[in-house]
């Protein structure tokens, strides 16, 4: 596959920047905002689980549409617009049950956007697919800027400003989506069997199962890390910094991934990420009160997210047929980040009130299980 159109590097990078700037606000500061309006630990955990649950349905639905129309960017553009409109409802009311509908609505569209945009990016890159990490790194820049900048801001201003910051980013994401033409290909119908059947093999299903367990393990971190470090005595600025440190470490890894991946191979990089996860959550539970230890633990995000994501995207590129690329990305997002993320948040909401130690022990345990699943099922090449 070769590039048929000029690579819009800045606009592709800008889309990732604002998409992950939204995540850089949601993960560190949305739980703190929800706490500030009177929601309890269980309600916060449930809302974070809903954010993940929509990934179970929306990516596969929109991936199915994206694989059957000639202009995949239209899916991204309409999804970005609908996410912004739905999120605006947060300004109408702030009670728990209303927020359940708002989170379900905007995340249904927002979660569908990224898998389709990944396909567009890879099509633009063509044979230069190893440059993917250089573009994706701008997503980490967006996350870092949001986490550090707003951490500093919220030490001086009200955490109640979180919704307006998020709305600005949603609107910017939609504007960028409108500016990017699609690297389109004619719609192909080469497969006589039902499309999903081509993905139901031991290698792909083992990868999905291990990825699901990996994201389940991140549940305590994504749901309660901000509250955890605040309870340990850190300021909002420090909270934002430690979130950003994880993103900085993954960004540095992404910048050199085009050199690392050809040497390590997809499988070994994937297993490295899983092993990092086994260690990281135990260390976080025992050493959160040490600033130096927490610094090192957050650098491990380069392994548990950066290496995991790069290996996963390369796995999908290698083992998912071209005509099913959208549904392959959606299947990955649906089960790994959707089912895995939602189960992780729900288990955390149940375990955390008993003890954070129980939640982090669960995270390390399922990470170890993921190592075994990957070893038994995935191609080693």
UniProtKB/TrEMBL annotation:
Domain of life of the organism encoding this protein: Bacteria
Pfam families named in the record: MFS_1_like
Intracellular or extracellular location(s): Cell inner membrane
Its membrane topology: Multi-pass membrane protein
Chief localization: membrane
Keyword Ribosomal protein: no
Swiss-Prot/TrEMBL keywords: Cell inner membrane, Cell membrane, Membrane, Transmembrane, Transmembrane helix, Transport
UniProt-listed InterPro entries: HcaT-like, MFS_assoc_dom, MFS_trans_sf
GO CC terms of this entry: plasma membrane
GO MF entries: lactose binding; lactose:proton symporter activity
PANTHER family reported in the protein's UniProt record: 3-PHENYLPROPIONIC ACID TRANSPORTER-RELATED, BLL5896 PROTEIN
Protein name, entry field: Nucleoside/H+ symporter, Major facilitator superfamily MFS_1
Natural source organism: Aequoribacter fuscus
Lineage of origin: Bacteria, Pseudomonadati, Pseudomonadota, Gammaproteobacteria, Cellvibrionales
């Amino acid at each position: 596959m070769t590039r048929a159109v000029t690579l819009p590097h800045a606009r592709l990078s800008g889309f990732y920047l604002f998409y992950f700037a939204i995540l850089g606000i949601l993960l560190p500061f949305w739980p703190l905002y929800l706490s500030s309006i009177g929601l309890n630990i269980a309600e916060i955990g449930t809302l974070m689980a809903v954010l993940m649950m929509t990934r179970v349905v929306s990516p596969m639905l929109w991936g199915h549409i994206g694989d059957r129309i000639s202009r995949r960017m239209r899916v991204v553009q309409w999804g970005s617009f609908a996410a912004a409109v739905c999120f605006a409802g947060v300004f109408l009311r702030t009670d728990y049950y209303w927020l359940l509908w708002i989170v379900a609505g905007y995340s249904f569209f927002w979660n569908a956007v990224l898998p389709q945009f990944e396909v567009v990016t890879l099509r633009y890159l063509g044979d230069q697919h190893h440059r993917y990490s250089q573009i994706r790194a701008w997503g980490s820049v967006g996350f870092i800027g949001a986490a550090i900048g707003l951490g500093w801001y919220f030490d001086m201003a009200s955490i109640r400003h979180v919704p307006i910051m998020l709305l600005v980013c949603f609107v910017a994401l939609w504007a960028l989506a409108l500016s990017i033409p699609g690297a389109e290909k004619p719609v192909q119908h080469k497969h006589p069997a039902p499309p999903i059947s081509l993905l139901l093999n031991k290698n792909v299903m083992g990868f999905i199962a291990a990825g699901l367990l990996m994201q389940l393990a991140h549940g305590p971190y994504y749901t309660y890390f901000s509250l955890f470090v605040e309870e340990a005595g850190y300021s909002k600025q420090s909270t934002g910094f430690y979130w950003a440190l994880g993103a900085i470490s993954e960004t540095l890894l992404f910048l050199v991934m085009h050199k690392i991946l050809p040497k390590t191979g997809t499988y070994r990089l994937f297993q490295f990420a899983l092993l990092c996860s086994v260690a990281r959550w135990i260390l976080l539970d025992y050493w959160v009160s040490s600033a130096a230890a927490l610094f090192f633990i957050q650098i491990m995000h380069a392994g548990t997210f950066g290496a995991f994501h790069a290996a996963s995207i390369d796995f999908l590129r290698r083992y998912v047929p071209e005509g099913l690329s959208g549904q392959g990305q959606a299947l990955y997002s649906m089960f790994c980040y959707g089912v895995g993320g939602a189960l992780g948040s729900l288990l955390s909401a149940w375990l955390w009130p008993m003890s954070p130690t129980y939640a982090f022990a669960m995270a390390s345990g399922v990470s170890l299980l993921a190592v075994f699943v990957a070893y038994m099922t995935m191609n080693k090449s």
